[in-house]
Amino acid sequence: MKINLLKTLIASAALALTLQINAATLTVSPSAISNNYSGVITLNITGLTNTEKVTIQTFLDLNGNGSIDDDEPLVDVCKISDGGAMIISGVTNINVPFDSNSATGAITTTLNFLPATIVEDIVGNHIYKLVSPTGRFSPVTAVLTVTNAVLSQSISGVVYSNGVALPGAIVIAQDQQLNNPVGGVVADASGHYFLTLPPGRYTPIASSWNCYYNFNTAPSIVLTNGVAATNDLILTNGTATISGNVYDAGN
Questions:
Q1: pLDDT grade, residue 15 (50/70/90)?
Q2: How does strand 32-34 pair with strand 140-147?
Q3: Of 29, 95, 143, 235, which residue has the fewest beta carbons closer than 10 angstroms?
Q4: What is the pLDDT of residue 141?
Q5: What is the mean pLDDT of residues 183-194?
Q6: What's the CA gap between 41 and 30, in Å, rounded?
Q7: Contact criterion met (CB below 8 Å) for 48 and 55
Q8: At 13, phi and psi to the nearest 5?
Protein backbone atom coordinates (compact mmCIF):
# COMPACT_ATOMS: atom_id res chain seq x y z
CA MET A 1 0.00 0.00 0.00
CA LYS A 2 2.77 2.45 0.93
CA ILE A 3 4.70 1.61 -2.25
CA ASN A 4 1.60 2.16 -4.43
CA LEU A 5 0.89 5.46 -2.68
CA LEU A 6 4.48 6.59 -3.22
CA LYS A 7 4.26 5.67 -6.91
CA THR A 8 1.01 7.64 -7.24
CA LEU A 9 2.55 10.72 -5.60
CA ILE A 10 5.63 10.51 -7.84
CA ALA A 11 3.47 10.12 -10.97
CA SER A 12 1.29 13.07 -9.96
CA ALA A 13 4.34 15.26 -9.34
CA ALA A 14 5.83 14.25 -12.69
CA LEU A 15 2.57 15.07 -14.49
CA ALA A 16 2.33 18.45 -12.78
CA LEU A 17 5.94 19.24 -13.72
CA THR A 18 5.32 18.18 -17.33
CA LEU A 19 2.24 20.39 -17.61
CA GLN A 20 4.17 23.28 -16.09
CA ILE A 21 7.05 22.85 -18.53
CA ASN A 22 4.63 22.58 -21.45
CA ALA A 23 2.51 25.52 -20.26
CA ALA A 24 0.93 27.74 -22.89
CA THR A 25 0.02 31.39 -22.38
CA LEU A 26 -2.92 33.44 -23.62
CA THR A 27 -3.32 37.23 -23.64
CA VAL A 28 -6.10 39.41 -25.06
CA SER A 29 -5.69 42.93 -26.44
CA PRO A 30 -7.37 45.26 -25.79
CA SER A 31 -8.48 43.81 -22.47
CA ALA A 32 -11.31 46.34 -22.00
CA ILE A 33 -13.63 47.91 -24.59
CA SER A 34 -17.07 49.53 -24.72
CA ASN A 35 -20.03 47.77 -26.29
CA ASN A 36 -20.02 50.12 -29.30
CA TYR A 37 -16.39 49.30 -30.14
CA SER A 38 -16.01 48.37 -33.79
CA GLY A 39 -12.71 46.65 -34.45
CA VAL A 40 -10.82 43.47 -33.65
CA ILE A 41 -9.81 41.58 -30.53
CA THR A 42 -6.27 40.19 -30.75
CA LEU A 43 -5.37 36.93 -29.05
CA ASN A 44 -1.69 36.07 -28.55
CA ILE A 45 -0.75 32.48 -27.72
CA THR A 46 2.73 31.20 -26.88
CA GLY A 47 4.28 27.98 -25.62
CA LEU A 48 3.05 25.78 -28.46
CA THR A 49 4.82 23.17 -30.53
CA ASN A 50 5.25 23.55 -34.28
CA THR A 51 1.84 23.37 -36.08
CA GLU A 52 0.10 22.49 -32.80
CA LYS A 53 -3.70 22.69 -32.90
CA VAL A 54 -5.65 24.44 -30.16
CA THR A 55 -9.25 25.30 -29.36
CA ILE A 56 -10.39 28.76 -28.23
CA GLN A 57 -13.63 28.86 -26.26
CA THR A 58 -15.50 31.98 -25.13
CA PHE A 59 -17.63 32.04 -21.98
CA LEU A 60 -19.89 34.70 -20.50
CA ASP A 61 -18.80 35.39 -16.90
CA LEU A 62 -22.19 35.70 -15.19
CA ASN A 63 -20.90 36.30 -11.65
CA GLY A 64 -18.00 38.52 -12.73
CA ASN A 65 -15.36 36.60 -10.75
CA GLY A 66 -12.98 36.24 -13.71
CA SER A 67 -13.13 32.44 -13.79
CA ILE A 68 -15.35 29.93 -15.59
CA ASP A 69 -17.97 28.29 -13.39
CA ASP A 70 -20.13 25.28 -14.20
CA ASP A 71 -23.30 27.30 -14.87
CA GLU A 72 -21.71 29.86 -17.18
CA PRO A 73 -22.55 29.55 -20.87
CA LEU A 74 -20.18 28.76 -23.72
CA VAL A 75 -21.04 31.37 -26.38
CA ASP A 76 -18.39 30.77 -29.05
CA VAL A 77 -15.69 28.31 -30.04
CA CYS A 78 -13.09 28.12 -32.81
CA LYS A 79 -10.15 25.90 -33.69
CA ILE A 80 -6.80 27.15 -34.95
CA SER A 81 -3.29 25.77 -35.43
CA ASP A 82 0.18 27.26 -35.30
CA GLY A 83 0.80 28.55 -38.82
CA GLY A 84 -2.71 27.58 -39.91
CA ALA A 85 -4.99 29.54 -42.26
CA MET A 86 -7.87 28.85 -44.65
CA ILE A 87 -6.64 29.52 -48.19
CA ILE A 88 -9.08 30.07 -51.05
CA SER A 89 -7.55 30.41 -54.53
CA GLY A 90 -4.25 31.40 -52.93
CA VAL A 91 -5.83 34.08 -50.72
CA THR A 92 -6.20 33.86 -46.93
CA ASN A 93 -9.82 33.86 -45.81
CA ILE A 94 -9.76 36.62 -43.18
CA ASN A 95 -13.31 35.78 -42.07
CA VAL A 96 -12.00 32.65 -40.37
CA PRO A 97 -9.52 32.96 -37.44
CA PHE A 98 -5.99 32.26 -38.67
CA ASP A 99 -2.42 32.54 -37.37
CA SER A 100 -0.73 35.75 -38.57
CA ASN A 101 2.38 35.13 -36.45
CA SER A 102 5.26 33.69 -38.47
CA ALA A 103 7.12 32.51 -35.36
CA THR A 104 7.09 28.79 -34.61
CA GLY A 105 5.18 27.81 -31.48
CA ALA A 106 3.13 31.01 -31.30
CA ILE A 107 -0.25 32.12 -32.61
CA THR A 108 -1.57 35.62 -33.16
CA THR A 109 -5.15 35.80 -34.32
CA THR A 110 -7.83 38.47 -34.48
CA LEU A 111 -11.55 38.17 -33.82
CA ASN A 112 -14.00 40.69 -35.22
CA PHE A 113 -15.96 42.62 -32.61
CA LEU A 114 -19.05 44.18 -34.12
CA PRO A 115 -21.77 46.04 -32.15
CA ALA A 116 -24.43 44.18 -34.14
CA THR A 117 -23.39 40.80 -32.67
CA ILE A 118 -25.31 40.97 -29.40
CA VAL A 119 -23.83 37.91 -27.64
CA GLU A 120 -20.29 39.16 -28.18
CA ASP A 121 -20.94 42.71 -26.99
CA ILE A 122 -22.98 42.00 -23.83
CA VAL A 123 -21.76 44.33 -21.07
CA GLY A 124 -19.80 42.21 -18.59
CA ASN A 125 -16.80 39.89 -18.53
CA HIS A 126 -16.08 37.58 -21.44
CA ILE A 127 -13.55 34.81 -20.75
CA TYR A 128 -11.40 33.28 -23.49
CA LYS A 129 -10.23 29.76 -22.69
CA LEU A 130 -7.31 28.13 -24.52
CA VAL A 131 -7.60 24.34 -24.62
CA SER A 132 -5.28 21.63 -25.91
CA PRO A 133 -7.34 18.96 -27.73
CA THR A 134 -4.64 16.42 -26.81
CA GLY A 135 -4.26 17.56 -23.19
CA ARG A 136 -0.63 18.60 -23.75
CA PHE A 137 -1.04 21.65 -21.50
CA SER A 138 -3.52 22.78 -18.87
CA PRO A 139 -6.23 25.20 -20.08
CA VAL A 140 -5.47 28.90 -19.60
CA THR A 141 -7.82 31.88 -19.70
CA ALA A 142 -7.85 35.62 -20.41
CA VAL A 143 -10.61 38.10 -19.63
CA LEU A 144 -12.11 40.73 -21.92
CA THR A 145 -14.21 43.33 -20.10
CA VAL A 146 -17.02 44.99 -22.08
CA THR A 147 -18.35 48.24 -20.59
CA ASN A 148 -21.27 50.51 -21.41
CA ALA A 149 -20.72 53.08 -24.14
CA VAL A 150 -20.71 56.69 -22.95
CA LEU A 151 -24.27 57.68 -23.87
CA SER A 152 -26.78 60.00 -22.17
CA GLN A 153 -29.70 57.52 -22.25
CA SER A 154 -30.05 54.33 -20.25
CA ILE A 155 -32.39 51.66 -18.93
CA SER A 156 -31.88 50.08 -15.52
CA GLY A 157 -33.66 48.11 -12.84
CA VAL A 158 -33.60 44.80 -10.97
CA VAL A 159 -34.41 41.35 -12.36
CA TYR A 160 -36.64 39.32 -10.00
CA SER A 161 -38.07 35.82 -9.84
CA ASN A 162 -40.69 35.06 -7.14
CA GLY A 163 -39.71 38.28 -5.41
CA VAL A 164 -36.03 37.33 -5.23
CA ALA A 165 -33.37 39.29 -7.14
CA LEU A 166 -31.50 37.20 -9.72
CA PRO A 167 -27.73 37.80 -9.84
CA GLY A 168 -26.16 37.11 -13.22
CA ALA A 169 -29.41 37.43 -15.16
CA ILE A 170 -29.02 38.66 -18.74
CA VAL A 171 -31.05 41.59 -20.06
CA ILE A 172 -31.32 42.25 -23.80
CA ALA A 173 -32.74 45.48 -25.27
CA GLN A 174 -34.96 44.84 -28.29
CA ASP A 175 -35.28 47.80 -30.67
CA GLN A 176 -38.99 47.94 -31.53
CA GLN A 177 -38.48 49.76 -34.82
CA LEU A 178 -35.73 47.47 -36.08
CA ASN A 179 -37.30 44.42 -34.41
CA ASN A 180 -33.79 43.34 -33.45
CA PRO A 181 -31.76 43.17 -30.24
CA VAL A 182 -29.29 46.07 -30.04
CA GLY A 183 -27.60 45.66 -26.67
CA GLY A 184 -27.30 43.49 -23.60
CA VAL A 185 -25.92 43.41 -20.07
CA VAL A 186 -25.28 40.93 -17.25
CA ALA A 187 -26.98 41.87 -13.97
CA ASP A 188 -24.72 42.27 -10.94
CA ALA A 189 -24.72 40.30 -7.68
CA SER A 190 -27.87 42.17 -6.57
CA GLY A 191 -29.75 41.47 -9.80
CA HIS A 192 -29.34 45.09 -10.87
CA TYR A 193 -28.83 45.86 -14.56
CA PHE A 194 -27.76 49.07 -16.30
CA LEU A 195 -27.47 49.53 -20.06
CA THR A 196 -26.84 52.71 -22.05
CA LEU A 197 -28.57 53.01 -25.43
CA PRO A 198 -29.16 55.53 -28.23
CA PRO A 199 -32.53 57.31 -28.29
CA GLY A 200 -35.31 54.96 -29.39
CA ARG A 201 -38.15 52.67 -28.32
CA TYR A 202 -37.10 49.44 -26.59
CA THR A 203 -38.43 46.28 -25.03
CA PRO A 204 -36.13 44.85 -22.34
CA ILE A 205 -35.97 41.05 -22.33
CA ALA A 206 -34.67 39.20 -19.26
CA SER A 207 -33.26 35.69 -19.14
CA SER A 208 -31.86 33.35 -16.50
CA TRP A 209 -31.40 29.64 -15.88
CA ASN A 210 -34.62 27.61 -15.49
CA CYS A 211 -36.82 30.69 -15.92
CA TYR A 212 -39.06 32.05 -18.65
CA TYR A 213 -40.11 35.59 -19.57
CA ASN A 214 -43.68 36.69 -20.32
CA PHE A 215 -43.52 39.01 -23.33
CA ASN A 216 -47.12 40.09 -22.72
CA THR A 217 -45.99 41.91 -19.57
CA ALA A 218 -42.75 43.30 -21.04
CA PRO A 219 -42.50 47.08 -20.66
CA SER A 220 -42.16 49.42 -23.62
CA ILE A 221 -39.53 52.06 -22.94
CA VAL A 222 -39.10 55.27 -24.92
CA LEU A 223 -35.68 56.86 -24.57
CA THR A 224 -35.32 60.46 -25.68
CA ASN A 225 -32.13 62.47 -25.27
CA GLY A 226 -30.86 62.33 -21.69
CA VAL A 227 -33.60 60.01 -20.35
CA ALA A 228 -32.70 57.42 -17.70
CA ALA A 229 -35.58 54.93 -17.52
CA THR A 230 -36.04 52.47 -14.67
CA ASN A 231 -37.99 49.22 -15.01
CA ASP A 232 -37.76 46.10 -12.88
CA LEU A 233 -38.17 42.85 -14.82
CA ILE A 234 -39.93 39.70 -13.64
CA LEU A 235 -38.95 36.15 -14.57
CA THR A 236 -40.99 33.06 -13.67
CA ASN A 237 -39.58 29.70 -12.66
CA GLY A 238 -40.23 27.02 -15.23
CA THR A 239 -42.35 24.02 -14.20
CA ALA A 240 -41.76 21.86 -17.27
CA THR A 241 -38.77 20.83 -19.35
CA ILE A 242 -38.05 20.19 -23.02
CA SER A 243 -35.23 17.95 -24.19
CA GLY A 244 -34.00 16.04 -27.18
CA ASN A 245 -31.04 15.54 -29.48
CA VAL A 246 -29.41 17.81 -32.05
CA TYR A 247 -28.47 16.23 -35.38
CA ASP A 248 -26.64 17.41 -38.48
CA ALA A 249 -26.71 15.86 -41.95
CA GLY A 250 -24.07 13.33 -40.90
CA ASN A 251 -25.54 11.92 -37.69
A1: very low
A2: parallel
A3: 95
A4: 97
A5: 97
A6: 6
A7: no
A8: -65, -40
Instruction: Count how many Cα atoms sit within 13 Å of the Cα of residue 221 in the half-sphere of its side chain.
Output: 29
Nearest to 33 by CA among 149, 174, 198: 149
Query: Greater confidence, 155 or 7?
Result: 155
SS3 content of the chain, % helix, strand, coil (to 5): 10, 45, 45
More confident residue, 56 or 215: 56
Percentage of the chain surpassing pLDDT 90? 68
- Let me know: does 161 contact 236? Beta carbons within 8 Å: yes
- 189-205 CB burial, b ≥16 within 10 A, e <16: eebbbbbbbeebebbbb
What is the CB neighbour count within 10 angstroms for residue 73? 12
Cα–Cα distance measured from residue 114 to residue 216, given in angstroms and rounded to the nearest whole number = 31
- DSSP assignment of 56-97 equals EEEEEETT-SSS--TTSPEEEEEEEETT---EETTEE-TTS-
Tell me if 184 sits within 8 A of 117, measured CB to CB: no
Q: Which amino acid is at 63?
A: N
The predicted pLDDT at position 98 comes to 84
76, β-bridge pairs: 58
